[in-house]
Recover the amino acids of this structure.
């Protein structure tokens, strides 16, 4: 089992945990708290299950699928956000605050390459389908979204520096959030994160 804590630069904190059920099946959990670019906050929780394999001693592949729920509170601060992002959902409904809830299904394949006992590179792509359940304005009136589900793609590269003697790793991550959905423009397009990873059970020898 391993746990990971990371922080996207200037935007929040994210905690992840994973545990293998056998040599190829694992479960994952993820919780994030983020500050929206518009001003406000967003909470996200995800769970998933997946398959992993090791084609060689220095390679590993995995694919996970799962479900998540999120709640966001977006705000306009002193007119700045509406002036520079006039097509967003906030200004579209002439609201200074919106409360939204959505659910998501995701699939996330990944490929990892171990250069040495200390350097580990992981490339992943997270594809999600998002359904907005409810959007409320600041006066609690419900706003119906004008379209159906939207789709999001999040490619990412993670560099892990491992310290095997203490079961600890330091990670640096760069990712991109690709979507044409105006409802989600509070999300930063480019994302950088720094974090720590703990291995709670000893790694099996290859």
């Amino acid at each position: 089992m391993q746990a990971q804590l990371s922080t996207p630069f200037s935007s929040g904190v994210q905690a992840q945990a994973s545990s293998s059920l056998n040599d190829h099946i694992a479960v994952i959990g993820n919780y994030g708290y983020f500050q929206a670019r518009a001003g406000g906050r967003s909470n996200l929780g995800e769970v998933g299950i997946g398959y992993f394999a090791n084609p060689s001693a220095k390679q590993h592949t995995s694919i996970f699928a799962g479900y998540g729920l999120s709640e966001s509170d977006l705000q306009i601060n002193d007119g700045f956000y509406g002036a520079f992002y006039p097509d967003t959902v906030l200004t579209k409904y002439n609201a200074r605050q919106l409360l939204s809830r959505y659910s998501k299904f995701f699939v996330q394949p990944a490929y990892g390459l171990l250069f040495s006992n200390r350097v580990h590179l992981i490339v992943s792509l997270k594809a999600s389908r998002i359904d907005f359940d409810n959007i409320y304005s600041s006066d609690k009136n419900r706003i119906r979204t004008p379209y159906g589900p939207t789709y999001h793609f999040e490619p990412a590269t993670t560099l892990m520096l491992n310290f095997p003697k203490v079961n600890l790793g330091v990670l640096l991550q760069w990712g991109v959030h690709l979507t044409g959905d105006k409802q989600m423009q509070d999300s930063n397009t480019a994302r950088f994160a720094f974090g720590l990873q703990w291995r709670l059970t000893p790694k099996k020898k290859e």
Q: What stands out?
A: Residues 77-89 have pLDDT under 50 and may be disordered. Helices lie at 80-84, 89-92. The radius of gyration is 19 Å.
